[in-house]
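Recap from last week: sequence in, structure out.
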Amino acid sequence: MELRDELSALGCEVVVAAVDGTDREAVSGLLDEFPVSAVVHAAGVLDDGVLSGQSAERLAGVWEPKAGAAWLLHELTVERGLDLDAFVLFSSAASVFGAAGQGNYAAANAGLDALAQVRRAAGLPATSIGWGPWAGDGMAATGDVAERVGRGGMLPMDPGQALSLLGRAAASEVACVAVASIDWASFAPAYAAVRPSPFLDRVPEARAALEAVAARSETAAPGARWAARLATASEGERQQVALELVRESAASVLGHASAESVPAGTPFRDLGFDSLTAVELRNLLGAATGLGLPATLVFDYPTPVELAAHLAAESAPDGQAGLAGVFDEIDRLERASETVGADPLARTKVAMRLKSLLSRWNVPEQAPEAPQEAEPMAEAENVLSATDEELFDFIHRNIGRPMN
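Predicted structure tokens:
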């Protein structure tokens, strides 16, 4: 216990007690045993994942040690009438700026911020500090998270500097403060592209960074430039432009130096994408093209070349977009059909549906009313909802008959 030894060397009496911070009885017993004049709540619990993968259990697993335990400390100290000098909560910049894949973590830290507001409103001391990442051990972003946060302009703080700012924050009269090392020239444009917010207008450094970007014609309005390139390119050129955009964006998300490290035909999962980096790529492409893109984009179009084809189709002029979209959907249908397997009943149902669709496609625009013998095709329209008996009866009655 290096911290205990260091504090003891400074003349402090240190007691280390292993207590579940969410257990009311255990925490109550601890407060009864030791006189308390200040509270510092510094829990750190993560369970990252995209929003669609979250659950009540995963939210509770992060919420309880963070916001739940803090609220318990608030209640118990108030019940005892303790006159505290400080009530410091270690929150996160995620509650201020948001964080990809950390919806539960951002919510739990927002709960700490709310508690600080509640205590201040009641005339009690409280400071919730929304920390950015620290360098070194402890509150440091590591691995892919560190790279992703760093590329976004939020830099790791020196722990010594962070601790000096801790004292200033705790002594302030503000309930909630954010303490982070931010490269506004990188952070503000990237943040504004994904989450347009008046918050940046209230930060002089952020406002200056956005104004500088807008003033440089060679870097201004990247979304408009990409959208214009895609819209004005020929059909063949549009595919190449889209592929260039996808590869450059994917390389940026993965931290590679150039698009050469992103082969056009390699699946995104083999390139190292996970659910979080997939959302980050979606955000970049959406900001660059101005298109509304789903969070499942990388999974719907699993290789750069397939994703580029989709973007090219979506960005095509009105006269071409419809046809390109049809081919795009046919490609997806072809991939989906490979999952049907060898089940003869399933394959028959799919085949009948496709034949029905093809028959309608081949009918001239001013086609005369269909003759009576074509009526069985109407049955094919509902083949997916038919019972097995109805399906086999349909096949039996139409063996050897043309399917128009």
